[in-house]
């Protein structure tokens, strides 16, 4: 599948399977996700600096967001307590950022619905049509096809 994401009329192409899809991400939606008042949970946060789960967690933390790492296989990431599930977090996050395989994302969005979490950012490679449809049907706002680190840095550089 070729996914073309348009942000400010700038196409970003991705290939997933054999279908071709054009997604137009709403600039205001992305801004609302990146609001500094939001609490983030990074599902798939990693201790390994080479992994995107580590990089996303560190980027959000270094940018000053209140962010919680979620990974059932880690006790601590960057000196912060790591939680094994969204249910274990001390607060309900405003945004769940997923950096996991698509089949795990499908379970995570169901958990988000149950916990009444209404914003999910699916990092490139973590999304699936099933997870996206689930969010759309259950009034969960989603950003997908774009990386939170790139979008955050892009906005920081805008006048």
- Report the major sheet: 5 strands, parallel
User: Any idea what the shape is?
Assistant: globular
CATH superfamily name?
NAD(P)-binding Rossmann-like Domain
- As a percent range, the share of strand residues is 25-35%
Order of helices and strands: EEEHEHEEEEHEHEH
Low-pLDDT ranges: 1-22
What is the SS-derived class? Answer: alpha/beta
CATH architecture: 3-Layer(aba) Sandwich
Fold topology:
Layout: E1 2-7, E2 10-15, E3 20-24, H1 27-33, E4 39-43, H2 52-62, E5 66-70, E6 76-77, E7 80-81, E8 95-98, H3 102-115, E9 119-122, H4 129-137, E10 141-144, H5 148-157
Parallel strand pairs: 1-3, 4-5, 4-8, 8-9, 9-10
Antiparallel strand pairs: 1-2, 6-7
Helix pairs in contact: 3-4
Characterise the protein shown here.
The model is unreliable at 1-22 (pLDDT under 50). The protein has one domain: Rossmann fold. α3 runs parallel beside α4. The N and C termini lie far apart (35 Å). The chain contains five helices and ten strands; from the N terminus they run βββαβαββββαβαβα. With 159 residues, it is an alpha/beta fold.
């Amino acid at each position: 599948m070729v996914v073309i994401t348009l942000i400010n009329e700038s196409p970003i192409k991705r290939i997933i399977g054999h279908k071709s899809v054009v997604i137009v991400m709403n600039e205001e939606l992305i801004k609302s996700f990146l609001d500094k008042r939001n609490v983030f949970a990074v599902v798939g946060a990693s201790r390994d600096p080479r992994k995107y789960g580590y990089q996303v967690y560190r980027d959000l933390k270094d940018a000053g967001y209140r962010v919680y790492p979620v990974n059932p296989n880690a006790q601590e990431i960057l000196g912060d307590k790591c939680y094994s599930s969204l249910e274990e977090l001390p607060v309900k996050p405003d945004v769940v950022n997923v950096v996991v395989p698509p089949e795990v994302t499908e379970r995570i969005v169901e958990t988000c619905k149950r916990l009444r979490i209404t914003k999910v950012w699916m990092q490139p490679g973590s999304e699936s049509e099933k997870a996206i449809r689930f969010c759309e049907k259950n009034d969960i706002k989603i950003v997908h096809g774009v990386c939170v680190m790139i979008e955050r840095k892009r906005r920081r550089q805008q006048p």
